[in-house]
Amino acid sequence: MPKALDRLLRREQFAFLVRNHAGWDEHLSRVRAFLGEGLRGADPARPVLILGAGSGLEVPWELAPPRTTGWDADPWSRVWTALRHHQWRPWVFEDLTGGLADLEAATRRAVAEPWSGRRRDYRAAAGRLAGLLPSLHPEPSALRAWIAEQQPGTILVANVMGQFGVVAERLVEALFGGPPWVLDPEQRDPLAEALEAWTRRTLTVFLETLRESGADLWLVHDRAVVFSGGRLTLGPWEEAWARQLQAESELEVSDPLAGLEVADLFRGGGKLSHQARWLWPVGPQQRHLVETLAFHPDVVRRTRSV
Ligand SMILES: C[S@@+](CC[C@H](N)C(=O)[O-])C[C@H]1O[C@@H](n2cnc3c(N)ncnc32)[C@H](O)[C@@H]1O
Question: In this structure, what CATH number is given to the domain that contains residue 197?
Fold first, then answer.
């Protein structure tokens, strides 16, 4: 795992834990109930995997069957979980995207001339990285290998997918020594666009890997992040999440899943259940639209992978 990433994830986790948790109760009880249902329904004879296990704030580890493994690249996640839940479970610390080492290498190549080490001008470096990014095709090989070897019956994806793009952005910013993005919203930002496309490729192959696992899947993720104060409510269920957001004033909304509709990747070959969304007031000017969905593959598919 890249050293810069190691530090970055530790810092992000710490920032997450020391945030003011006022207003988080409803989110925490809903997410714990959802993940708890996945753990309760898991076949105790088969391995269970919890991706993005973090410090276990959202994960009811007391319900986890004996053969449950946590997975989180933050080097402190297992210790945080042990302190919170008094359980010392098997753990994997690998990058789930499989693409961050290549992203770091490409960014370093763009930021400084490899032959002299001389730093390039900011704009030139951003243009160079925007040009390099389309050639990167992240492969979650560590996750694939683990699944092939262990054949998990259930996989929980505990609020990690929305982090893939954010972590990639932070990594690029750290290596540039500041945010290299174009700030004027009227102007195109080729680097931001190329990184968004990288995130979309990363999420697509990650979700395909999960589907191919034949495991029952319980996914919770940030569907959108709303940066603005003012009243915001959630309307009745709509397939298109943006139509559910109801506000009096204009909203600044970002899509951490880079335009991907998760449910679209789970049509056919199984049953999609438990689709739900709610608002999570993360901070004074930041509310997340959280989405949950569970997927149960057809029995034929599941027995083939055993
Ligand atoms: C919002 S937190 C999840 C919180 C967690 N579910 C809990 O109950 O505490 C996202 C987690 O994803 C991890 N993460 C982010 N990107 C990752 C990656 N590429 N590979 C593995 N873990 C990653 C972070 O270290 C962090 O712990």
Answer: 3.40.50.150
